[in-house]
Each structure stands twice: as structure tokens, then as C-alpha cells.
Design a protein that fits this description.
306 residues, alpha/beta, 11 helices, disordered N terminus
């Protein structure tokens, strides 16, 4: 963060053995270039990429510049800035952000306004300084004003403002250092997802209390979305009732299983007792035989001895 905002380059570099004075802490957002009094006061000799990669000069960091629109700031942006920050052993990263007027003129409408985009960059850990209203094409005057050593950007030719590659003159001057794009993530991809799922987001935000006017939703679509929301609520209620019914049925089934098991046990016990009493060799047969024998003896007494 340029040490502190009230320091100068000379003060921050008196001790050439402490290059980390440039960003001792991450407890505050990066300053804006037009608001900080910490200007580059040290001699600014032109560096080659080879010299910068060796960690020279020792009395100051290598000043790297990266620019862009940074709409809907995402991980792809952050990774590009991380690469720019770590290109050299001792780097100071300046990030230029184009204004709304310039962006709308050369590229198109943005989701976030310029103030939101500036603030998003200030809170990225790799950024040391943010330059507001950055130019679309880098001029020698701009590079000199901010004492820029190298410009970091992906190496794909960026055609705009009547040029096949707006970084062509930077490359020819030996000041361009390429970074790699992160595949699978871009501002255009994010916007495409939002457009694809527009109905879902519109319905959700209507539920949250946004008005149809705020969402730019027509009267008919508003009624349709609200009806769909009501249908979804009914489906959720039915689903909850079904789940509770399933729980009830499961509990009944469990109790029924217990009752059936107990009934079977009692039935087996009853049948066992019945068979023990009335079975072929049961107690009832023995008792019946004994009674029959006594009755026969009573009816047919033994003959008198001859």
C-alpha cells in the first residue's frame, strides 16, 4: 500500500534491505492514485524484464500496471492480478479502471457502475494502488506520470478504438509482460447465466419484496411469476404433507409389525398350551382315560371269587 499514504518514495526506501515496506499490512483498502500523497520520488531508470526478474533495483519495487473494466469482479480478474503482482520478486501493482463513459463508448453497458468497480479493486489483496478513469490507450505521458515499468495483460491481441491491438506499442517498447487467462469464468459468462435463468431470479426477487418496476418486469409477467410462486408454495405444502404422511405410515407400520410379532408369539404360546392340554398325548387325554377306566370299573365290578 505504498507504506502509508503520508510517506514518500525516499522515506519508504531509505533502508534498501526492507523492500516489504511497500505493503506491510492488508488491514486497509488500497489507496486511489489521485488521493495519496505518496508519489514515486526515487530515480526511475528504465528496466529490462531480465533485470526486473533478478530483483533489481534494490532501492525501489518494480512498478507493474494492469488495467481493465473489472465488471462483476470475479476469480478470473483476481487471478490475473495475482499473476501481475508476482511477475517479479519485488513488485508494486497499479491497477487502472476505466470510467463508465469510456467503457460504454468503446465496449458497452456494464452491470456495476464505476464507483462500484473502483471499490471492488481496492479490496483485492494483490492491488497496491487504484487509478480511476484510466485511459483506453496508454500514452507515454500516462506511463511517465505513474512511473510505470511494465504493463501486464493477457497476450491475446485486444482490438478496440480503431486499433488491431491497443497494447502493440507497449509490446514494441519491451514493456509488456503477458499473463494467462482463467478458463471457464468471465463477466460475459456470468451475465449469460443470469439471462438464461432470468425467470428464476425475477420470481425470487419478487418474493423478496422488489417491485415489478425495479425488476423491469411487465404487468403480465409479474402476475405470471406471482402465480408460479403460489403454485410452488402449494407444491411445497403438499410435499411437506406427503413427508409427514410417510412418517406417520412408517410409524404405524413399525407398531403394526410389533403387534403382529407379539400376536404371533401369543398365538404360538396359546397353540402350545392347547396341544399340551388336548393333544394326542396331552394331559386331557390322560385324564379322560383315567376317568373312563374308573367308570368302567364302577359299572362292571369284579366277579366274586368262585
Amino acid at each position: 500500500m505504498v507504506g502509508h499514504q503520508d510517506c514518500t518514495m525516499e522515506e519508504a526506501t531509505r533502508d534498501s534491505h526492507t523492500p516489504k515496506l511497500w505493503r506491510e499490512t492488508l488491514t486497509a483498502p488500497a489507496p486511489f492514485a489521485d488521493e495519496t500523497s505518496c508519489q514515486c520520488q526515487a530515480p526511475h531508470e528504465k528496466l529490462t524484464i531480465a533485470q526486473a526478474r533478478l530483483g533489481t533495483p534494490v532501492d525501489r519495487p518494480v512498478r507493474v500496471y494492469a488495467d481493465g473494466i473489472f465488471d462483476l469482479f470475479h476469480s478470473g480478474h483476481a487471478r490475473a492480478l495475482m499473476q501481475a503482482k508476482t511477475l517479479f520478486p519485488n513488485s508494486y501493482l497499479l491497477v487502472g479502471v476505466c470510467s463508465d463513459d469510456l467503457t460504454h463508448k468503446f465496449k458497452g453497458f456494464t452491470v456495476m457502475n464505476e464507483a462500484e468497480r473502483y471499490e471492488a479493486l481496492r479490496h483485492c489483496r494483490y492491488v497496491d494502488e487504484v487509478i480511476r478513469d484510466a485511459p483506453w490507450t496508454l500514452t507515454p505521458e500516462f506511463l511517465e506520470k505513474h512511473k510505470i515499468d511494465f504493463v501486464a495483460h493477457d497476450d491475446i491481441p485486444y482490438s478496440s478504438a480503431g486499433s488491431d491491438d491497443v497494447y502493440k506499442h507497449i509490446k514494441e517498447a519491451g514493456m509488456f509482460v503477458p499473463t494467462q487467462r482463467t478458463e471457464g469464468i468471465s463477466t460475459s459468462d456470468i451475465i449469460t447465466r443470469i439471462v438464461r435463468d432470468y425467470d428464476v431470479y425475477a420470481r425470487r426477487n419478487l418474493q423478496r419484496g422488489y417491485t415489478a418496476k425495479e425488476l423491469n418486469v411487465s404487468f403480465i409477467n409479474e402476475k405470471k411469476y406471482r402465480f408460479q410462486n403460489q403454485v410452488d408454495k402449494m407444491k411445497e405444502k403438499v410435499k411437506n404433507v406427503e413427508e409427514r404422511s410417510k412418517e406417520f405410515v412408517n410409524r404405524v407400520e413399525e407398531k403394526s409389525h410389533d403387534l403382529i410379532q407379539k400376536w404371533e408369539e401369543k398365538s404360538r404360546e396359546f397353540i402350545g398350551n392347547f396341544l399340551e392340554l388336548f393333544g394326542p398325548d396331552g394331559a386331557w387325554k390322560q385324564m379322560f382315560q383315567e376317568r373312563s377306566s374308573r367308570m368302567l370299573q364302577a359299572l362292571s365290578p369284579k366277579q366274586s371269587p368262585t
